Amino acid sequence: MTASIELDWLKKWDLYSPKNIAIKDGETGRELSYAQLFEMANRGSQYLRGTFGISKGDRVAVLATNELEYVILFFALQRLGAIMVPVNFRLTQREVDHIITDSAPKLVICQEAFIGILEKLPTSVKAEKLLLQGPHSFAEEILKASAEVYPFVPEETDPVMILYTSGTTGSPKGAILTHKMIFWNSINTTFRLNISQTDCTVSFLPFFHTGGWNVLTTPFIHRGAKVVILKKFDAEQILLLSEKEKATILFGVPTTMDMMVRSPLFAKSDLSSIRYSIVGGEPMPIELIKVWDKKGIPIRQGYGLTEFGPSVFSLNEEDALRKIGSIGFPNFYVEAKVVDNEGHELGADEIGELVLKGPACMQGYWHNEKATKETIKDGWLYTGDLVRRDSEGYYYVVGRKKEMFISGGENVYPVELEQVLRACPGVLEVAVIGVPDEKWGEVGKAFIVRQHESVLTQHLLDHCLQNLAKFKIPKHFIFLDALPKGDSGKILKRKLQELA
């Protein structure tokens, strides 16, 4: 193993702070200390190796909600040098079939609730199957396995996880995350968020999402801190647990942060232990930032993606209002550039594609050399996100490269339109896409969730006329009860394209 970085985190914390709590189930109250997590990971390694022959490079797919056994499994597979493939159980059977077939796991582990998905897998899938919990399951059988320390097998460049992207263009692609990538993402997160052993967070993002593992969970465990996990987002439960567990860092997207504010418990909750909340996904509305700031919790806007980090950018909390909408600066071991279509670096306030370089970059896409070469060029990862950098060096996401539309020969960036519309009184949520238009080529179509029915199209048009050039103003306004969202709370524009 390369000696430059330490990968066997649990072994170290078993020595340094064995009694400290590593992971806790927020619903049941079950918890594991670092000593217990280390022991169970070793038992898991012994069981998986002895019963299924799992070894270095083998894939193990998982369909499960956030459970303590899921975390044990991750570290058990890590010791073996095997590769975890978390599968989104909310996908259609066709999408799950693609992921399982593409990753070709030796073993598929699932909760009983998802057995139906396994039973419908193609006959070409030869993987063995195992329940995560219940009789004769992973949870039960590892208790019978040897607790002897299993040697730590992998090296830093070995894959530890394959995370499949949402597949907005074609079939989902499997991003290969290495031990090195997760290590350096943890270092970047620790440096920028000042994580220490005394920190605690309540995490609701699912483990089939990079946010579930790598926004805070793996950095916190690397640092010897405490993670309280939930199976799903529940505003009241997060507020209650944050107070009870004295959480120090909160994570959310603007939607979840707004839902917590709207909970009757928000005003009553003692959240004084939280030093700030980190927010990703999209810019947080200024009024919502002010509500949290008044509660004593500054907002740190950030940016990341499955293929890099995901701890890539962070805005210092003191700049939350002065630099509204900014994702801040690149984190410690991240190089960033803004480039044009030819790859030439652009100057201040010029809009171009964000490209990244650093040790927290994925290895590539699983069995997809074409997509890998299109994404990673000369060591730089092309994100597909359009950004600008202001004269002070602060970065702003303008939109997805493929979301930008051209109206009457002018480039229009949906994010700008969304920020303006979100500031209109009575607007709760908004998403803008480009749609075909006979006269202008493309025009904007805005999907609005309003606070009350008195918010009419004319109000929105008047607001836009005061704040946007005419060619940018959406030509269509559609009112919805709710915007379609993914598991992290991020708006799914591909679903809106289907409605258009």
From TrEMBL:
Residues 416-490 form the AMP-binding enzyme C-terminal domain. One of its GO terms (molecular function) is ligase activity. Coiled coil: none annotated. It holds the Pfam family AMP-binding_C. CDD domains: FACL_FadD13-like. The keyword Ligase applies. Keywords: Ligase. The keyword Isomerase does not apply. Residues 17-366 form the AMP-dependent synthetase/ligase domain. This is Long-chain fatty acid--CoA ligase. It comes from Bdellovibrio svalbardensis.
